[in-house]
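Homework help board

Subject: predicted structure for assignment chain

Our instructor gave us this sequence and asked us to write out the predicted structure in token form, then describe one feature. I got the tokens but I'm not sure how to describe them. Can anyone check?
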Amino acid sequence: MLRERVSEDIYVFTSEVYAQVTAGIIATPDGAIVVDTLPFPGESRQVAAFAAHVSPGGARYVVLTHYHADHAYGAYLFPKADLVAHQRARRLLAEVGAPALKAAQAEAPELEEVRLRLPDITFEGGDMGLQLGGKVVRLIHAPGHTDDMVMVYAEDAHVLFASDTLMPVPSVVDGDVDALRASLRFIDELQVENLVEGHGEVILRGEVSEVVQASIKYLDCIETRVAKVVEAGKGREPLRKITVEQCGLSRIPLGGLVQQIHMANLFALYNRMLAAQGRAA
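My token output:
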């Protein structure tokens, strides 16, 4: 696991085990606010240990940005912390996350000890504030990647944990393109010094708007190109010829996972467009 300090009291952790997924710590004199956990217990334990090292009493809050396994599985390793998420995350963890964990444990013995934890504190609507040790953190509902997605904005440091709202390539398989566009545009309204992607790198202030716009253009591109394939009526096979580079992004990040996400986006949009026309995929 890699650790990076992005401001005086804010740290980012990047998994070396799975898809460069990120987590974070906002350290205060009264405890730490942890943003997401990592999917495998070994790395999440390191995050918990570091929280105890930099803040008296360790983690006071753990914010889950959304219900997906790679961000939520380590929550049980913070038993003394209040778990915070959007209200929709609680439902999705119970209805979707629990059976998915059972299936994952059958395939990956290292997940055997994982216990799914449901949020203690939830909110509905646009946002919620957390105050701890003189620091103010804003939780912003940002649907698009998933319906329950939350971004975490450390107001004093102007650091945004965008989670999977911003990735090397947007992912809408479990989400909604229009909602994601709106959430991406909202990022441009914030004053951001450092932006932490849900997978990948920390983006600096001068690059944030460019990266946001590239993601929006990618969404526009795949929507247009998939619509043309649907209109042509020749089945799904032409989708395989639409490359991520044609839509303005690189396939290199995340060890090749970008291309897999891109293809999944194309097929998901194709199925939705057919369904909207009352046609079978």
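Reply (TA_rk): Your tokens look well-formed. For the description, you could write something like this. The chain has two domains: 2-207, 217-276. That's the kind of observation they're looking for.
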